[in-house]
User: Fold this.
Amino acid sequence: MGDDSEWMKLPVDQKCEHKLWKARLSGYEEALKIFQKIKDEKSPEWSKFLGLIKKFVTDSNAVVQLKGLEAALVYVENAHVAGKTTGEVVSGVVSKVFNQPKAKAKELGIEICLMYIEIEKGEAVQEELLKGLDNKNPKIVVACIETLRKALSEFGSKIILLKPIIKVLPKLFESREKAVRDEAKLIAVEIYRWIRDALRPPLQNINSVQLKELEEEWVKLPTGAPKPSRFLRSQQELEAKLEQQQSAGGDAEGGGDDGDEVPQIDAYELLEAVEILSKLPKDFYDKIEAKKWQERKEALEAVEVLVKNPKLEAGDYADLVKALKKVVGKDTNVMLVALAAKCLTGLAVGLRKKFGQYAGHVVPTILEKFKEKKPQVVQALQEAIDAIFLTTTLQNISEDVLAVMDNKNPTIKQQTSLFIARSFRHCTASTLPKSLLKPFCAALLKHINDSAPEVRDAAFEALGTALKVVGEKAVNPFLADVDKLKLDKIKECSEKVELVHGKKAGLGADKKEFKPAPGRTAASGAAGDKDTKDISAPKPGPSKKAPATKAGGPPKKGKPAASGGAGGTATKNKKGLETKEIVEPELSIEVCEEKASAVLPATCIQLLDSSNWKERLACMEEFQKAVELMDRTEMPCQALVRMLAKKPGWKETNFQVMQMKLHIVALIAQKGNFSKTSAQIVLDGLVDKIGDVKCGNNAKEAMTAIAEACMLPWTAEQVMSMAFSQKNPKNQSETLNWLSNAIKEFGFSGLNVKAFISNVKTALAATNPAVRTSAITLLGVMYLYVGPSLRMFFEDEKPALLSQIDAEFEKMQGQSPPAPTRGISKHSISGTDEGEDGDEPDEGGNDVVDLLPRTEISDKITSELVSKIGDKNWKIRKEGLDEVAGIINEAKFIQPNIGELPTALKGRLNDSNKILVQQTLNILQQLAVAMGPNIKQHVKNLGIPIITVLGDSKNNVRAAALATVNAWAEQTGMKEWLEGEDLSEELKKENPFLRQELLGWLAEKLPSLRSTPTDLILCVPHLYSCLEDRNGDVRKKAQDALPFFMMHLGYEKMAKATGKLKPTSKDQVLAMLEKAKANMPAKPAASAKAASKPMGGSAPAKFQPASAPVEDSVSSTVEPKPDPKKAKALGVSSKAKSAQGKKVPSKTSLKEDEDKSGPIFIVVPNGKEQRMKDEKGLKVLKWNFTTPRDEYIEQLKTQMSSCVAKWLQDEMFHSDFQHHNKALAVMVDHLESEKEGVIGCLDLILKWLTLRFFDTNTSVLMKALEYLKLLFTLLSEEEYHLTENEASSFIPYLILKVGEPKDVIRKDVRAILNRMCLVYPASKMFPFIMEGTKSKNSKQRAECLEELGCLVESYGMNVCQPTPGKALKEIAIHIGDRDNAVRNAALNTIVTVYNVHGDQVFKLIGTLSEKDMSMLEERIKRSAKRPSAAPIKQVEERPQRTQSINSNANMLRKGPAEDMSSKLNQARSMSGHPEAAQMVRREFQLDLDEIENDNGTVRCEMPELVQHKLDDIFEPVLIPEPKIRAVSPHFDDMHSNTASTINFIISQVASGDINTSIQALTQIDEVLRQEDKAEAMSGHIDQFLIATFMQLRLIYNTHMADEKLEKDEIIKLYSCIIGNMISLFQIESLAREASTGVLKDLMHGLITLMLDSRIEDLEEGQQVIRSVNLLVVKVLEKSDQTNILSALLVLLQDSLLATASSPKFSELVMKCLWRMVRLLPDTINSINLDRILLDIHIFMKVFPKEKLKQCKSEFPIRTLKTLLHTLCKLKGPKILDHLTMIDNKNESELEAHLCRMMKHSMDQTGSKSDKETEKGASRIDEKSSKAKVNDFLAEIFKKIGSKENTKEGLAELYEYKKKYSDADIEPFLKNSSQFFQSYVERGLRVIEMEREGKGRIPSSTGISPQTEVTCMSAPTSTVSSIGNTNGEEVGPSVYLERLKILRQRCGLDNTKQDDRPPLTSLLSKPAVPTVASSTDMLHSKLSQLRESREQHQHLDLDSHQTHSSGTTTTSSSSTANIDDLKKRLERIKSSRK
Assistant:
């Protein structure tokens, strides 16, 4: 139980990751309890478990996994952060839980998935589940489908996206697994429950049996609409509401709520689009024109087949439609007409919206073709026109339909009316506004009086449908003249009609305008569809009904007028009660008297016509009292006003009575239900009195009251016509004045401009100037509402008058119409129909434009003209365009029908001649103005192509296109543009010009829209790709547009749309979205509705919502600004930069407050660069002063004026400090939102701040420093680097402040200096701070010295400028300063340098006075820091200095170290040791420094030399890595980033500094210990191992010899290395990556370490050696067996060759080989025998039998034989097939030996045991029997095993082994523990040492005991070795390279050759290029060294062939055939080429 108690103590999260399952189980249980206890969903506790939840669900132990799942479920349910884990956990559930046999596990897995959906992560869950459907394991597939089904059943089809599921359904139905098919069937049933028949088309191709089964299941489903039973967190209130309703007994409302949500899926959406244009028969266009009808029929039939596809891909169908239209219109064969009509139907159904652009061409043709009588043709045409109607809007085709209504042919009239009726059914109150209804009603009214009964009936049906759709209130005005009988007929029809949209349409129905009726499925030919679209001909009679998908009952019928008017459709119910239209029959005078006498006192009525004015006055007073007390419902208005009008009536002569009378009229109008009938009785009189001086005001008051009661438009019309039918000019002018005021009070909606204009024209022509003036004033008021188009009506007036009108208009310019104050309070919006106005803000504007007389120009657009425009010769094309421009100019205002012109012009938009493109754009601009709002119908076919031109490469063409698009949008409003996919298709094109122009345009237009079509979401994916576009401008524009997209679509939708992006992009985009969310402007306030309504679409630029004063028209469209106070609340003002685009702050005419909404810094391109040039060229003063003079301040002011907001500049240069504080506060606010601006003006901002440093006011200074801290943090985040100019004009002044007496300020300044190092190299900061030490202010001196110390501590000596020597000398001067603080600071700084740098400091300082020197030495002693510990310490002390500046490269980039460390932490969360990277970097810098400064000084003492040389060798290896990294501009690619991070750390493993190396090893260890992260090391194994054995060699040669170094440091390093290796070699996949060469070097290093007697002397040494033993075994077992065997053979060969090598070394190598031999039976199959045999061949060639026998020991020959014997035994005769790699088999005895062995084994029947074979030929002692020997050895081992006699036993064993050198003690050791084996070996070695005396070479010479000397061929200076005969192909440069390194390594030039073995490390892998063997890696990195040392090298090669130390050398050149080597070298060279 011991280990139990171990894990019991661990914290929960560690238990959860423990390798013992019990521990994990307990961990999960505890976690579950913790989770249940945490109440706060945002508690930090949750975050601790974020990374573990995946492990909870994927635990390998099934029991533990169950508990983990429970805990995970609770976590997901309660933790706020759980959403972050969605992807990994759900994928874990799918792969590791759904395949479990336990049902409970699966249930919990499904629950977890559903819980993630509940916490709003539905998309991610669904994505993982859909991936799961591709899994090979059917269990998983079934579980995924089941989860999807449950999710759909519980959450409903709103949350679970059905499209992707339906896409994979057919594949699931084809599965071989029955379980999968069954589950697919269940989910199909569930989907059907939600979307009904929309599921049929996608499944029509599955197996018929399955389809039949599904049909049966579907029939059983309940018909009611399904409701979700589970809700997202955000909807849970809704759930609670539903429950309440149910408990209250009925969920009527709930049902209603969901009712209209259910059929939201449209089958069309689920289908794949098919491309058909390319599939048309090649000769289609010829055939369709053919003379024979059969050929034409063939062509049509081909099309018919293609258009049967239910969804077609968008494309250019213009030609096809044209051809079909021609057949419909002109073909004489009616059968073909019907066929062509069917094709059009198919196209319309398959293309939907995308067909809309062709609708206008086809509709008139089809309608005219209705003259055909044949039912099948009629039916085909009906189907066609109905299908086409659904692709467009009634508005767009209204002109064409109305034109046909006047046709003489009754059938055409009848069918058109029926078509209108059917179309109306698809409309709602909002999509059928008055402006549309009016012309249709007018045309239909003609038809109800037609002589043909069928025409009449059709018209009745159409009117009835209209009545049903918009309600009586809207239609009644048009039916005023219809007699009762007909009216009843209309109402009767209305009751029969059932609407497609049901009655729920409501006001929001504009959205549904384009949505196909929910009931319609994609026309897949099912009979049901036809019904729905009411096309089916078989139903007789005109009153076809569309089956209502959701019929609301019959509409409420209008109540009798008296009770308050008709309450139209349900949409108007709110207002129905007060609807103003009070219709009242005219009463006779008798009835009136009777009614009046009932409510008025009798005396009153008698005195009305008294001749005495006083009596009349008294009577009026009573009358007034009576009216005041009367109740509204009882007041007989008509009777009362009749009484007032009774004689003398309006001819009353007494002004007092008259005033009273007029006042009473006003009262009655206000208090009673005042009808138009009553109004007509009095208005005449009022107009008559309006000019009266005394009574005029009362008359106006009465008229206003009547206008309020009967609505202004009607009243105004009446009043105007009455006024101008009289002659009295005073009345006329006063009436006009009244009207001017009334319009301001009531607003402009509904006014009949036409009538006014004729009256105004009359007034303008009046002789009386007052009338003219009033008329002009009225025009001014109208201008406010109507805009500039008003002037068109008066262009033919006299110039003088026109100039007066223009002056009046000018006055009005820039004002916004006041909000209406009357006409709303009582009756919604002055009684007009909200639905229509709310949605059609273009009413008023349209009206004006509708009044213009329009010319029909279609007859002038002849085919000749069209062909001219399309001519090949550009001049003729130009003529054609000129003609068009002429036609439009002449006509001024034109009708929308312009024939073939659109197609002709469209062609010219991509003309190769740019001049013509521009001309076409100008024509299109003209066209927009001339056609007005009707241009809408051409947006799709002409407008969108204009947008394409925005992608033109020429600037002027783009500008023209933009102007044209704007001119169009001004006429059409934005809705048409945003609808459909056209705009998103444009944005999709990867044209940077197009993208930036289009996004800029959208950013300008979107803010002013109140609502946008849902299709805007289609642009979002392309917007995201623009955010990451290569082009900076595109990115910029996309960022500007982002907030406005969000304003309309909402953050949720936008964030959802990021789902499909790559993970890296997704994070970036989400970050931008977050930012945009903060900057998101509010939508233009709806409260402005009333005002904005009349201004709408005709010219949105002219109008603004009431609250926004209109500025010049362009900037105002950018963003209607809400009033400033509101803006502040909405957070718009302060962030207005984003909303404003980049507009300069608005016009100065605005109030000061509003002025501040713009950006405070304006980005001036290249502004900063220009300023720098000016300063360099001395055009301006250099920023350099002791105190700032006025000219500097003035200069700064001028420079700022162009790029700082005016108001801010005023604050900045104000004389009062409080204004400076204000300015700083604003700058702080805008810092985040205006990064670009801040960076663009950074030089000016810093200069301004230097001025603040000279202020005496502390609060300003504090605020300035606060701002600077934020500023430099921002700059370092933005990776900005200060320019020299910015630094030099700022840092010196900042340093002045470091000497402030106030502590707080000094601290802040130091913090800023600290942060500055992140944006400006520390090495450049150094001189500035150094300058600061010369100050007179002692505080400043002290602080500067301290700062210098910090710099050196953080960034190493390289920061010392100009050189460390000079810098330290200057610092040392201050040790003698008179101020104590300065002295201390100087001493501390030098101590810091000493800690990093050691004794060398004294050399750098130079001579100091005795006193100073003693102070320094004393201080250094006191600090007593060991240099090696310094780095860690520094890091702890100054963690904020994470930035190292690579001052060698002097790059203005972030220092590589910081990149490394931060990237490292991200990439592999090695966050345990973030310091490592930073610290290490500093060490390297120091090394560099020593090399630069001290090479000369070092050569005196041996050990120093060794040490420096070693660092010198490492330096170049490691430095280039970060250098290269610093230069690379992108770190986008996460993978390469991880790789380079790992490279960097590995490079530190071999560092000369022990701490650095340990840190690096710890980081790698952390990676290796985590399974999921270990694979990051893959590909780096060789590199890592090379670094490791280099470190081993470094320790061996250098560190161990270094007296100063604490030995426990070395032990620590050893244990790190060995621990790392063991971790590595436990991971088989990584271990196998080690290549032969590297393994050879590694084994060399490890065996050398095992033999190192110095280690044994250390107290921990034994432990190290034991670990090495263990490691060697691991290496042997886990490495790639071929590689390790090969490596050992080469190593053995080398060690035998090298005379300097100890025999022990070879012995250990052979022991390793024996161990490998023992493993062979298991590993033989994984070994590449050919390679091994090649290595043995080489070995035998170098050591023929004779030579081997000469060896002192016979182990080598036995080892070789044993190996070969084992191989023969395992492989049999086949082994001879494996000699393929050996070129010349005769060179060695291998083949012969193998043959002998085979023969031998054939003869012998295996009598010899393996043991004997192993022992080989020479027996231990032929005479002594085996048994005796064994007994003897057993005795010895017993002794060794016992505590007491262990020494004695070892001594005996040693003696025994000496005596019988070939004795084999292996069997005895084999069964013992690893520890025991190594103990025995070590014991023997100790005894050997004692007996033999330490015959080792002193290590101070730098020669390792095991190094050897191999031959060098001096003349050729080609390095070779016998070892390279194994055919490894390596270039000679590699050897040279290697040699240089090795010589470098050893320190002494003349002993360079002794470190030989690694040379051969490359030579071990035959015919395979090396992986990454030691030399390869170094090869690339050492090129710098090469040039400098090349000469040196060659000299050495020749001269130093022997050791200069006393070691004897044997030249073994005799063994090498030089010619042979030369040949081989040539071969290697040629093969390398």
Remarks:
- The two ends are 65 Å apart (CA to CA).
